[in-house]
Design goal:
Blueprint lengths: L3 H12 L5 H13 L8 H23 L30 H15 L4 H30 L1 H9 L19 H31 L7 H24 L1
Helix pairs in contact: 1-5, 3-4, 3-7, 4-5, 5-6, 7-8
Length: 235
Amino acid sequence: MITHRQLTYGNFLFKYRGILPIPVIIFSIILFYYSDSQQISPQQFIFSLAVSISGLVVRVLSVGYAFNKTSGKNTKKQIADNLNTTGIYSLLRNPLYLANYLNWLGIILLFSDILITIIITLYFTYIYYYIILVEENFLRDKFKSEYENYFKETPRIFPSLKNWKPAKHKFNFIKSLINIKNGLLGISIIFYLIYIIDTFKYSGEFLKFNWLSYLLLFSILFYVSIKLILKVYKK
């Protein structure tokens, strides 16, 4: 049973969950700049980006097959008109938080620092533990025995492939693209920023262009295009 303190604290973390990792990442970048680490190789950038992109893939699969008014980016309060239990939600109960961690893990791995990786992983575990407690409490109150059965059968964060159940309805491609626009842009900005810092640190060059520049440009155009489409659609 969740306590009042856990509920209050979890709601606070839920509200600001999108920005809570940012100060830690900024601090890690500063530590990286003043460290004696080796220059980041192109292969390391590719591997780390693949990890971050895998988080976006998990998010696409989560949001694309989810019911409307679920798996959103709401911050003011919990929202769920239906309970997602099929598709990726049959493998684990919180795929979006796994997705978020993978997004940030790719960035963390660029620093090649085991201690930083462990510390930030523990930080994420701490934040999401309380957020998940609040969400579980909300879903338990709303869906009663349906959620209790789902809770008992499905792991919280580590996927169980034996539980797989096909999604109940068609994939919503547009909804998933809208949902990942911020994440893709954020990942692109941070990766390119770290590339700039890393290049300047070891060669003194600034604003050097490479394939990450094109990824950033694509992400910006993608973000702007989605925003314009949504603006026109609302009219």
